[in-house]
Amino acid sequence: MNTAVDASIDGDGRTRVSLAELIALRARVARVKLPPERVHTARHGQQSSRLHGRGMDYAESRAYQPGDDVRRLDWRLTARSGRLHTKLFEEEREGRLLVVVDTNAGMRFGTRARFKSVQAARAVALATWYAMRGGDKVGLIAFGGQRGQLRAQGAQR
Predict the structure, then answer these.
(1) Strands of the 85-94 sheet, one edge to the other
(2) Dist. CA 90–CA 72, nearest whole Å
(3) Does a structural domain hold residue 19?
(4) The pTM is what?
(5) Domain hosting residue 82, numbered range
């Protein structure tokens, strides 16, 4: 990446980072091939979870296998077929990324290459683009010299 081309008027890439540069990192994320998903259903910002509890959706029934939880037996199918069957459930949860930003003066220090704040902004931008590519919501909390909060949202703004 050529920093002379990527840096705009409001950022030099060493002491300040430009919004244009952070948005340009989206193209880098788009080129990365992600590993195949384990879930074979369509994802709409949802991820499978192993948690049991409220909000679980019935997925299917299958023949009982030793070690299955007897509390999940499908009694209706068992009565119809004469063989034990167990219910399979899946719970989907939205993924969320919470970015915590340190705005203390110590972040305006670094090496000859760049300030810690510039490198942190680039790392956060990459993590955010990856999360949004996966359909997750992103939120932000800032502490230190400047404080603020942005609730987790799925929109790309």
Answers:
(1) 46-49, 85-94, 57-63
(2) 13
(3) yes
(4) 0.53
(5) 51-93
